[in-house]
Write the C-alpha cells for this entry.
Amino acid sequence: MGKRKDYMDDGDDSSDEESGRISFDVTENDLEDELAGFSGFQHRRRRQANSSDEEDIPKTHLGFGQAFKPAKQFEKSKSETKKKKSEDVAKPKRAIVPDNEFGQFSVHSNKLGQRMLEKMGWKHGQGLGAGGEGIVNPIETKQRPTGMGLGFRGFDERTKQAKTEAKLRKAESSEDDQEEDEEPKPKRREAWKTSDKPKKRKNKTVYKTATEIIAEAQGLPTQKVLDMTGRLSREINLSDIRETPTMVETTTRLPELRHNLRLIVDLTRSDLENLSREKQKNEIEMKALQEEMNKISSSMEKESKQLGKIERIKQIAQDLERINKDALATGAYETGNITALFGEKFDILEKEFLADIKTMNIDALVVSVWAPVFKYKSMHWDILKEPSWGLLDIKRWKKLLPSNDDSVAEWGWTRKDTREDLVFTPYETMMNTIWLSKVRSAINNQWDIHNPEPLIVLMEEWEPVLPRFIFENIINQLILPAISRAVEEWNPKTDTVLIHTWIHPWISILKLWRLSDLLTTIRQKLSIVLRQWHPSDESALHIILPWKTIWTSAQTETFMVRSILPKLTNTLREEFEVNPRDQQLDALNLLKTDMVTYKLVPISGYKDLEKAKQRLVATDDELVSIIMINCGGAIDVKEFFDIDEYTKIYILDSHRPLHLSNLDPKNVHVCVLDEDEHTEKFDLIMNAYDSVMYAYESESDDSEEEQMDPVSKRRRLNNEVKTHRTSRHKKMEQRKLLAGYYTIGSYHASSSSSIVYEIANQLSKSNNDLLWLAITGVTAQYLYERIDTNKYIENIKIFREDTARFNIREDRSTQDEVGGEIVIGDEYRFMLLRHWSLYESMYYSSYVASTLSLWNDTENNKLHSFFALMGFRLDQCRQIYTHMDIDLKDRLQTKIEEVAPHLGLTELSYPSFTRTYNNTCTLSASDMVFALSAILETSPTTAARLGLGTSMKGKDWQYVVEADTPDEVYSESHRWWLRNFYQAHDALNRSTPDVILYGIRLSMETQKAIASHVSAAISRREFRMYPSFRYLLINGGPDLAMLQHPLALQRLALFSSDIYRMHGKRQMPLILATLDEEHDSYLVVTFAGALRFGDTKRNRFAVAFQEIAHEENSSISLDSIEPTISYMKKTDLNPFINKLKVMKLL
C-alpha cells in the first residue's frame, strides 16, 4: 500500500516505463474539449441547420454523424448560437391593439396593480413582458349556458380576446414558414393518366449507407429519426446525428487515464476488503474474550454468593447449637415445641436457602437439632390420647425435611429413578427410628381393636407427611394382622359389638382391595348364622343392612339368594296374608333393606306385556313377586299371567276403572295398592260383583216336596216366585251397577309415585329423593289434567310437611352449598321459565296464550302491553331468565300480581316445589315433567334434525321394521322408546341435571311446534266440528315428526282445549290423528276437556271409541295401556271417522 501511494505521488505516468508505448500529454484544453464533446448533445439543437463550417467537419469512421469538435470550434459555434438567438429576440412583433374598453375597470379601484406595473416599465396600452410581446387585454371569461356540456352543438367557449390573439399568432406563424420554405414545391405526379410511352421496368433496389443518406439529406427539410442505439429509444433529427458522438468515440478517448483510474479503484477496493476482514476478525475475538470474561465474572459472583451462604449457614448452625444446649439446660425439651425453640432460624433457612436444601445438606442440620427434642418428648407421648402431637411442627417445616417421596418439581433437585440407589434422608431416618418405634409399641400393647377411632385419626392425620414405606409398614405389619385376628375370633351370635362398627371405619384407610379376604370371611360367618334365622327377627336387618354399600352387586346377590330368599319364600308361602285395608308387614321386615334382587321391564303396551310374560314369568320357577307400576289394573292379571300358588302380583296403577277381579278379596294372588277406592259407593260395586260372580241357587229337595201337602206346596211355590222376582230384579240392578262402573269413562286416581312414597313412609324408608319423585309424579298428573286442583292441593299439603322434615339445615349459611334441597314455593304457569326467556315462556304457555289470544295476535300487541304495564323493557324480557336484571326478577312477582288480574290472568300461579342441583341449576317440578316427557318421546332422528343429537350412548338407533298389523307397527316402530325410557330413568337417579337440561331443550322445540300448529289450525279452520266431537287431522308440515307421539298430542289437545274454553266455545271431546308416513298408519288420541280450568272430566268418549273399534272388527290397534291412544292403518281412518259422525256416542 505504501509503494502504491509513493508511485501515485510522484506523478509519473506508468506508460513511460514501457518502451514503444505512445505518450499522451493531457492538458487543460484536452479536458475542456472532452467536456465540450460530452455536452455537445445539449447544444446541438441551438446550432443552425446550414453552417459554413459544416463541410470542414470530419466524419466518423462509421460514416454516421460527426466527431467531437475541438474546444475552440465549440466556443465559436456557441457564440454564433447566442448571436442568432439575440437576433431572433430583436425581431419586431405584430402590435396588438387593445379593446375600446381597455382600462375602464380601473375607475372603480385604487389602481395598485397599475402603479406597480408602471414602476416596472409598463405603459398603458402595451403588452406584458420585456418587449411588450405579451397579452394586452386582461384575461376574459365566457359563461357557458346552464346545463350545457363541453362542445355542445359546436358551442365555442373562447372569448373575443382569445380569438383575436389566436389570429395574430397564426399570422406570425405563417410568415415564419414562408421565410423558411423558399424551395419550390415538387411537380405533381400524373401517374394515374394514361400514356402512350412504354412502361418502364421496375428499378432495382439500391441500398445506401448512413453517410450517403446524410449527404443526400443536406438540403432537405429536417426529419425525425428514431435512435435505437441506447437502452431507450428516442427521437432525433438528421441534423443532430452529425453532432452526436458515437459510443466508440466516447469510450476510446484518453485510454491511459481510464486505465489508471481503474487500477486505482481496484487497489482501493482490495485494500478496503482486507481492512473489513481484519475488522471482522478483531470483532469476533473481542466478543469471545468478552464472553469468557463474563463467564469468569459470573462464576466468581456465584462462588462469592456460595461462600456467603456457607458463612451464613455456619452462623445459623452455631446459633441452633447454642439454642439446643440452652433448651436442654432450661428444661424446654419437655414442651417439645420445635417452632418455639428453632422457629426463627428455621424461617431464615426456609426463606433464604430453600433451593439449597439438598446441595448443602440443610435437612441434616435441621434434623440434628430436631431429633433430640423429638426423642425426648416421645418418651412421654400417649399416641392413643394425642394422635396428632408433633404433626403441626412437621407440617409447618416440611419443606426443610425432604424425603424420597417428594416430587422433583416441588424441590427442584433430581435423583435417580432406581430404588436401589435411594438412601434414607435425615427426615426418614428420624421418623423410622423414633416415631415408628413408638407407634409400633402402642398398637401392639395398648390399642383396642373395637375402638379404631384413635388409630384412624393417627393414620389420616399423619399420612400426608409420613414417608410411604413407613405408612405401608404400619398397615401391612401392624393393623391388618390385628384386624384379621379379630375377624377370625368374631362370633355373630355372642359378640355384642356389631362387626361393621369396627370394620367400616377402616375402609377409607385400608381400601376394599386390602379387606376383600376379610369381607369373604364375614359373609361366610353371616350365612352360617342365618340358617337358624326367621324374617320376623329384626336383628339380622341391623347386621346385614350396613353391608349393602360395601359388598359388590354380585356378592350381595349371591348372599341373598343363598341365605335370605329361601327364608322369605317360606314365609310368603306359609305365613304372609294379604289384607290391603290392614296389611301386616312384620313378617317381612327384611324387605326394608332393599336387598331383594329385581328386574325392571319397561312396558309400552299389552304386546310388550305379553312378551315379558313369555320371556320372564313363564320361564322363572323361582319367581316370587310381580309388581306392576301404572299398568295391569284394567285386565285380570291372574288369568293373564296364569301364575302358580306361590307367586304374588302387586298392582300400583292410576288408570281407572280397574278390573274388579283384581280387587276381589278372595283373589289372594293379586294385591292392588290403592287408597282411593274405599268409598261407600265402591263397596256397593264390590258387593254386586260378589253377588253376580258367586251366586248360589239352591235346588229344591224332591223327596221333601213329595211329602208336603198341596196347601203347603202352593204356599211355598208362591213364596219362591216372589223371592225369584226380587232376586232377579236385584241381579239386574247389580249388573247395571257393574256396567255403569265400566262405562262411566276413563279417569285417573292418585299417581303411582305417591302410592310408592306412602309405602316407603310406612317402611321408614322415605327420603328426599323419593319425595322429589312423588312430587314429580303428582305434578305430571296435574299438568296433563288427570287430577283436579283439589286433589292436587291435598297431595301438596302432605308433601309440604315432609319437605320441611327432610330439608332442615341448622346452619342456613351453608344451605346453598348442599345439593338436592327441595324448596316450597308458587310456580307460574309460564312454561320452563327458568330456562327460557320471560317473553317465550309466556308466549308458548297454553294458559297465557289462550287467555290473551296470542294465537290470533300476529303482532303480539297484547303481550307487549302486558310487559309495558309491568314496566319491563322488551329487550330485557327477551333475554334468558337467568340473564335478566336482578331488580326485574325481584319485582316480577309484585308486578304480575298487580297487572295479571286486569288482563284476565286470575289463575297464573299454583303451589309447587323446586330443587337445586349442586348449587348450579334449579329445576321446578314442572320442568322435570316436560323434560322427561320430551326425553321419552323424541326420536333420535328428530333430535338430530333439531341439532340436539342424543345423550344416550350405545348401539346405532337404526332398525328395520317389517310389520303387517298395526299391533306390530306399534311395538316395532317404538323400539327406540325403550332406550329413551332408560335414559329418563337414569336422569331421575343422577345427581347432575345434564340429561334433564337436554330434555328441557327438546321440550322447548316440541312446545314451539305445538303452539305454531294449533295457531295455524285454528286460523285455517282445520278443526272439524261434528255433533259429538271435534276432529283434527295432521297430515304433514315441518313439525310432523315431533307430533307423532302420544304425550305431544295430549299437550296439543290441552293447548287447543284451553283456547276453546277461554273463548266460550262449547267443550267437546277432541280426536287428534297424526300421520306416520314411515309405516303408513295414524296415531289417534282422544281427549275430553273439562268445562272449567283446573277441573277434570271422565273420558267416556274413549270408552265408546274402543267399543266401536271392537264391534267393527277393523284393524285398529288398542294395544296401549292408555285407553285414549290407538293406532290404525291409513286406509281405515276415514271410514272409521265417517261412522263416528252419524253415531250419538255421548
